[in-house]
Amino acid sequence: MPECAHYIPPAETKEDLEFADLSIIDLSKAHTAKGRAELYPQLRDALRTHGFVYAINHGYTQAQRDRIFDIASVPFNDVSLDEQNTYTASIERTGSYAGYKPRQFWRVNTENQNFDQIDNYAINIDVTKRPHPTALRPFIPELDDFARHNYFNILHPVLRLIALSLELPEETLVEKHSFDRTGDTAVTFMKYYRRSNDEEEKSKNVWMKGHGDVGSITILWSQPVAGLQIMAPDGKWRWVRHINNGVVINTGDMMKFFTGGYYKPTIHRVVQPPSDQRAYDRLGVYCFVMPDNDVRLLPCADSPVLKRVGIERQCPDEDSPSCETWRKQRIMKYGRSDLEKGVERGIEEEVIEGIVVKHYN
């Protein structure tokens, strides 16, 4: 295998944090009909309660997971700023994060113009779709394997469980997420850099304000630097605990469209790590899942479950945007547009395709 520096994460925090009580599902059970019948109620209840769930036994070993975190450092540590600029994403023109998103691109706090300190490098699941920096090219075969693992061994089993929870044929949602069709699902590496005391004061220690994700499903590979918080059912922010070689799964905007509001976007944010981890930057590995570009964001109205509980439509069916349209509009505007104060305290709003999108401070 090509060599790169080994990423050594810090120890887990010893601070007494208020962690969210998240469920854990064993994805190895998803290989059989009996196992899926056991898992889908667990997944359903977890996603409808907290919106986040841990998954274990997904098929990658701890060593394979650690190797991906080694590779995740390469775009930030081994690529010069000049070369990074060559591969910078045209976010406001294309509505895609493919390539680099530089630091200080998103506004964290609208009132005082405080900006993020996060570098992204996003790789389409078709890893050959666009060129990559020289230092990353030797690792493309491993990244291709990792992209396929996320798609076929984690995403597709989760989509089948969600379909079962709606009493739909198992492949209903899988068919909207084809590996070989045009879409913008991406393996994304994110490096959160430590910030100055002045920045922390201005942002009230928030590194990325509360939001729901754009796509259908997000797969987050657990890592030990605390910072991720979810909005719990009681309206309080709670920390997400690290689990070795676990992944954290949450639903986004597009799943809310597909399920008529049965599964909602999980509101989450990133804040300054606890004091015993503040000497470290925070490295993250994600798979942000987008359905195929041409799929319309219509509810699965044939679901017996949705017929019983009712469908919460975001807009009339004839006005439903395509996945490509929604993704482009959300990404082009996120962290860049002027937001309006919402009726609810601490909430800002914008309107996209006639639909109100909320941001949480």
Fraction of helical residues:
25-40%
What distance lies between the first and last C-alpha atoms, to the nearest angstrom?
Answer: 44 Å
Q: Kindly report the average pLDDT value.
A: 94
What is the 3D form?
globular
Poorly predicted segments: none
Q: Describe the strand arrangement of the main beta sheet, using strand numbers.
A: 1-2-12-9-14-7-6-3
The gyration radius over C-alpha positions equals 19 Å
Q: What is the structural class?
A: alpha+beta
Describe the structure.
By secondary structure, this protein is α+β, with helices and mostly antiparallel strands. The chain is 27% helix and 22% strand. The chain contains 9 helices and 17 strands. Helix 1 packs across helix 5 (140-165).
